[in-house]
Amino acid sequence: MKIDSLARNVAVSTAGLELHYGATPVLKGIDVALGQGKTLALLGPSGCGKTTLLRLVAGLLAPSKGSVSIAGQVVADAASGMFAPPEKRNLGMVFQDYALWPHMTVGGNVSFPLEMRGIGRAERESRTMHALERVGLSAYAGRRPSDLSGGQQQRVAIARAIVGEPQLILFDEPLSNLDRELRENMVGELAELIASLGLTAIYVTHDHSEALTLADQVAVMRGGLIEQLASPDELVAQPATPEVADFLRLGGIAELQNRDACWFFGNSDVALMRADHGSAGTRSILIPVSAITPGEIQQDRVAASVLRSQFRGDGHLATVSLIGADQVELQVLSRQKLKPGDGVGLSIDLGQIRWFENSRHPHP
Ligand SMILES: Nc1ncnc2c1ncn2[C@@H]1O[C@H](COP(=O)(O)OP(=O)(O)OP(=O)(O)O)[C@@H](O)[C@H]1O
Predict the structure, then answer these.
(1) Is 205 touching ligand 1 by the criterion CB < 6 Å?
(2) 282: which of 30, 69, 238, 359 fits an S-S bond (Cβ 3.0–4.6 Å)?
(3) Do domains 5-238 and 243-355 have the same CATH topology?
(4) Residue nearest to atom 30 of ligand 1 (CA)
């Protein structure tokens, strides 16, 4: 194994990583580097390759091209054929379905990885109790997993993943089997646990709020590629593409056309604002929820019709379509309840609009 002294504080990195199933490319060239003690979320829609990337880091799959390094050591390299199996990578894994052994006690489950490593009984017992204490389950060591709730079972899986004090912990949608309330509580707990243990973690999820809550860096993936890799703050403030903005639900995405010195929504007659002569013919924009103030329909407002609305804690979040450009859907936050079919006038703060360089549209 090669030690890269320049990369000592890089906990995990990939270079030109590709994975093909036969002729089908699933990952098309992934370059990431994650610092010690940091959490990286892999976020993206179903089938974009998140789990495949995690499995390549874990050593459950070998790359078709490129390499994976952990703590400066190459653990897989397609060119040389070098491949370290999972048990040689010093990592912990937590899966969606907990993967606990039903015939063993909670304590037995947690101590199993230590037993596999040949660690003696006394040390196993003290480390197991310590790991269970860390997840708040020391009183449950003698119980069977089936006696525990879903949230408690997932904590047992986390205790089992940290008991060996791994340098890296991999989470594959660990909360997706829990109901919404428990999931929301556990996101915060997990973030706290990861921080207090100083873990380096990779966390796969398709839930943007989980990713933005937990991670220091978020890789938004699409079609086997990373579309944007950035901190949560940067992603929200500066989504690189309309697709990223749409996936993070930052607001409404629209395509504008420059005609007669005005920016119109698509090829409709609904104008948003004046345009400079000579500016590009077509641009995609993000109109954040915070840029729109809803009110009565009147002359200087963009008229829209409510499609659906949901209460979300601080108001009613409605999806509206523009009258005269009904392919454009925007998100509006309203104090009053809006019902499907209601007419609403939108005051749009043009200063908050984000203009994208490209002219791609997320809903072809
Ligand atoms: N063994 C396999 N053989 C062929 N194709 C596969 C295999 N495993 C995964 N794929 C394909 O690879 C692509 C990426 O799968 P992957 O599980 O990494 O996606 P994902 O982003 O994690 O999605 P999800 O959130 O649904 O788990 C998918 O199109 C999937 O159908």
Answers:
(1) no
(2) 359
(3) no
(4) 47
What residue's CA is closest to ligand 1, atom 3? 21
**Nearest alpha-carbon partner for 165 in 213, 121, 98, 117:** 117
What is the topology classification, in CATH, of domain 243-355? OB fold (Dihydrolipoamide Acetyltransferase, E2P) (2.40.50)
Q: In what order do the strands lie in the sheet with 65-70?
A: 24-35, 10-21, 65-70, 73-77, 82-83
User: Ligand 1: distance of its center to the CA of 46 in Å?
Assistant: 8
CA of 52 to the centre of ligand 1 (A): 6
Residues in the chain: 364
Spatial CB neighbours of 299, under 8 Å, sequence gap ≥ 6: none
Give just the sign of the alpha carbon dihedral 244, 246, 250, 251: positive
- Tell me the domain boundaries of the chain: 5-238, 243-355
The closest-lying atom of ligand 1 relative to the alpha carbon of residue 49 is 18
Q: How confident is the model at residue 364 (pLDDT cuts 50, 70, 90)?
A: very low
**pLDDT confidence of residue 275:** 87
Q: Is the CB of 48 under 6 A from ligand 1?
A: yes
Encode pLDDT of 38-68 as tens digits: 999 999 999 999 999 999 999 999 999 999 9
**Which of 17, 50, 53 to probe ligand 1 with, by most ligand atoms within 8 A of CB?**
50
From the CB of 206, is ligand 1 less than 6 Å away?
A: yes
* pTM of the model as a whole: 0.87
pLDDT at residue 361, as a whole number: 44
For residue range 320-351, list pLDDT tens digits in order: 999 999 999 999 999 999 999 999 999 999 99
- Cα–Cα distances in angstroms (integers) from residue 170 to residues 58, 166, 194, 310, in the given order: 8, 10, 11, 34
| CA 130 to centroid of ligand 1, rounded, Å | 36
pLDDT of 2 over the 60 cut: no
Please report the ipTM that was assigned to this predicted complex: 0.95
> What is the residue-averaged pLDDT of the chain?
90
Q: Which atom of ligand 1 is nearest to the CA of 22?
A: 4
Residue 110 has pLDDT above 90, yes or no: yes
Interhelix angle 150-162/180-197, rounded to 10 degrees, is 20
Give the rounded distance of the alpha carbon of 341 from its chain centre: 34
